[in-house]
DNA sequence: TATTCCGATAGTGAC
DNA sequence: GTCACTATCGGAATGAG
């Protein structure tokens, strides 16, 4: 199977459960949620629309081809992907809590110019810490403010925009988006320019470690507060009436 | 010692014999012949003018600064370098015969834009086979027909050219010569374009092996002819008068 | 913007 | 056009049977 069309081959399966569990996380009637084979963050899933009536494989090649179909149908499709993405987000959040003791943000969106020939919606945790995050284009393709990563909610807002804006937006012109991948590296959190990928990766790790530390402290303070409140409640229950706040 | 000025430091020695034998091959009153520290061929020497009255270190920075001095003095300097280069050439030819049993061509010339700050004349065998021959710019800087390598005899001919030609030539404009180093690779022997350095290096090795084979065969034929002639002479001496040719 | 392999290209730092 | 080091950039192939 060529790497260019592997997602399509998944999306064409009439029985998604035949996919190995290392590939498939879950599926619905209209979509699959798979593990990105080269995760660019600790958590990274792809939501694929299934090739199923009324959709053909060609119509599902990418965002542009989807938009070229009936507008209402396109919106319906994206909303169903959104449902699946929200579900994947919850799965990720549970895992975050279980494995790391805290939760951090998750981004949901498309690449303006994908390489693989089947629409895929990224659901990715915002750490961007992964051994597979190797190249400038990898990073820039997920930078949340650069423009190449199209947040799903932004894409959905196109449906409510002026028709002329909609028509321009859905063209996803290469000339507009391709150069973004070559932009200088900058930390999406602190905005600082960073000279190269090794330095950026260290920086992202520090930023995430920092967030982890702060979040865990916050969780711990909350736990303490609740414990205190509980002890006071218990004391109050045992020795007197509740104190006024 | 910075690599930019190391040649100058050699050229300034009042006693060149204090240089290690791994650096110095020989010297005259006006010049040094040193081993190129990064030989781009099997044989590769540099001839340096010594910093010695009437020459100052600044005047000897490069070809341009030399030409800016008195024209007659400049010519005299180049002719003295030529003498040393011819001497180095003979040394190389002896070594070729001793080590390889045949001789091949030697080029004598300057780089139009040198990186090191002291005039140095290259004396280099035309094999261009060396582990130090690594980059396109290395090769192109010695390509005998590309223009970046200025054969000493060509430079000397500038003195006899129209004054306007002379004045233009001695400027050695970067804009003219720099782009030559990025020209596509082509074999200086057979003219074929060659895609990359690894391929070129293999090709140069084959070309040189080929020349070696042919030259050795030629040498052997000559030896045989002389042996035959000698045997016939000897026979003639022993058994009769020389035969007419 | 799938990865991987190979090589060319570009910037730096050397002292 | 000094080198050596690091990283980036640029093309081509990639599968399957």
TrEMBL record, chains A, B:
<protein>
    <submittedName>
        <fullName>HIT-like domain-containing protein</fullName>
    </submittedName>
</protein>
């Amino acid at each position: 199977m060529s790497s260019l069309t592997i997602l399509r081959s998944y999306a064409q399966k009439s029985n998604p459960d035949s996919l190995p569990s290392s590939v498939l996380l879950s599926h619905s009637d209209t979509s699959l949620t798979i593990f990105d084979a080269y995760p660019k963050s600790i958590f990274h899933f792809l939501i694929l629309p299934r090739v199923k009536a009324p959709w053909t494989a060609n119509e599902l090649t990418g965002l542009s081809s989807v938009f070229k179909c009936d507008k209402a149908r396109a919106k319906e499709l994206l909303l169903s992907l959104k449902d699946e993405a929200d579900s994947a987000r919850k799965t990720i959040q549970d895992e975050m809590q279980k494995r790391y003791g805290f939760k951090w943000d998750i981004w949901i969106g498309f690449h303006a110019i994908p390489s693989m020939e089947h629409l895929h919606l990224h659901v990715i945790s915002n750490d961007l810490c992964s051994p597979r995050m190797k190249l400038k284009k990898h990073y820039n393709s997920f930078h949340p403010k650069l423009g190449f990563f199209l947040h799903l909610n932004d894409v959905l807002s196109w449906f409510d925009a002026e028709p002329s804006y909609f028509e321009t937006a859905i063209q996803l012109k290469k000339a507009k988006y391709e150069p973004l991948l070559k932009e200088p590296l900058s930390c999406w959190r602190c905005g600082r320019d960073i000279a190269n990928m090794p330095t950026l990766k260290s920086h992202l790790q520090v930023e995430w470690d920092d967030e982890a530390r702060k979040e865990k402290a916050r969780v711990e303070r909350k736990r303490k507060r609740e414990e205190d409140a509980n002890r006071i409640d218990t004391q109050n229950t045992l020795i007197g009436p509740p104190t006024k706040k």
